[in-house]
Amino acid sequence: MKLSTPQWWYTRERSPSPVLRALLTPPSWIWTWATARRIARGAPVDPGAPVICVGNVTMGGAGKTPVVREVARRLGGHVLTRGYGGAQAGPLRVEPHHAAADVGDEPVMLAADLPVWVARDRAAGAVAAAQAGAPVIIMDDGHQNPSVKKALSLVVVDGETRNDEWPFGDGRVFPAGPMREPLKAGLARADAAIVLLPADLEAPDPELLRALASVPVLVARLQPTEPPPPGPQVGFAGVGKPWKVERALKAAGCELADFWPFPDHHAYSESELARLADRATQFDAGLVTTEKDWARLPPAWRTRIRPWPVRAVFEDEAALESLLLPLREKVSAAG
Question: Which of 253, 215, 211, 222 is closest to 235 using CA atoms?
């Protein structure tokens, strides 16, 4: 059974669950050692097309998929993803007939307007995309995967620091905390960090910017592309940080009657969806969820539930274009 992301991971001070954290600390040392060893021993493959990695240093919920979409859209690139939750190992290109059960929810969502490749073996997937004519490959996740040569490595960081939250928690590595590796180690391999802010947060925390000062920092906002559905709504989300979806809906003016969190990439059963529908009936409300969750819904439920799409909007367009310019030049030279 999949477990929800522990919200206490992201508490920086007055750490809750001290006994649990203490029990999970020795396994975190093993995770840290194994990750560093795998990276050090990596032999990156050049797939024949430049690869931009959009990853993170935490276990999820930073918002990297909207950044992947935006970068791929700007460069006309192909997206490469592991296809978490899908049955297909790949490499394969996502086609309209593929469902989330086949290739994962994020590939289905992104494939609506981008070429998307799924491969558990990232190197094989990158080669397949390049051989199929991808001018540039945007790898969704994989900052800790050393199997592919990267032309540019971007780390996405959740910019939410209100309510005693901190994107790195107290700095501990999984499972004692949210980090995939120590922050210093992750930033050492990054070309830039992208701080992704909620739409209603005025500016990034200066202390967070100082923590990322070893690399160039770009700021982007997670902006809805349309208003939430009108009238009362029962919301639900199975993402890395479902509580962020609840906050975002409320901040956007949604009349949220209730909200149900689920684990990331959760596969909704008919009985769960029926319970959500019953709850909506109690409030005379509609049902709303994220694009990613909507991609996992059975077709019969998609007409009954509204997706609420968002996109990453960069504050400094010139800084982003400057970062991507060398990739544009490589693509032009190769073409």
Answer: 253
Give the number of C-alpha atoms closer than 13 A to the C-alpha of residue 242, restricted to the C-beta side: 20
Q: Please name the residue that has the structure tokens 């693509």.
A: 331
Tell me the Ramachandran region of residue 147: left when phi exceeds 0, alpha when psi lies from -120 to 50, beta otherwise.
alpha
Cβ contact 117:108 at 8 Å: no
Please name the residues in contact with 186: beta carbons below 8 A apart, sequence gap of 6 or more: 57, 143, 144, 155, 179, 180
Rounded-to-integer distance, Cα 181 and Cα 187, Å: 10
pLDDT tens digits, 10-39: 887 666 667 777 888 899 999 999 999 999
Q: Are 35 and 117 in contact (CB under 8 A)?
A: no
* Pairwise CA distance, residues 300 & 170, whole Å: 43
Length of the chain: 335
For tokens 């109690």, name the residue. Answer: 282
| pTM, 2 dp | 0.90
pLDDT digits (tens, 9 = 90+) for 139-160: 999 999 999 999 999 999 999 9
Pairing of strands 116-118, 217-224: unpaired
From 119, 51, 44, 47, select the one nearest 88 (Cα to Cα). 119
CA 214 to chain centre: 23
CA 48 – CA 129 distance, rounded (Å): 9
Q: Which two tokens stand for residue 151?
A: 């032309």
Q: 292: helix, coil or strand? A: helix
Residues 100 and 295: beta-carbon distance below 8 Å: yes
Say which amino acid occupies 166. Answer: W
Please identify which residue in the block is written with the tokens 């669950």. Answer: 17
Lookup: tokens for 251: 């901040």
Given a cut of 90, is residue 335 above it in pLDDT?
Answer: no
Whether 1 shows a pLDDT value over 60: the answer reads: no
As a whole number of angstroms, the distance between CA 45 and CA 62 comes to: 27
Q: Are 194 and 167 in contact (CB under 8 A)?
A: no
**CB neighbourhood size of 36 (10 A):** 14
**Which residues lie across from 139 on neighbouring strands?**
53, 80
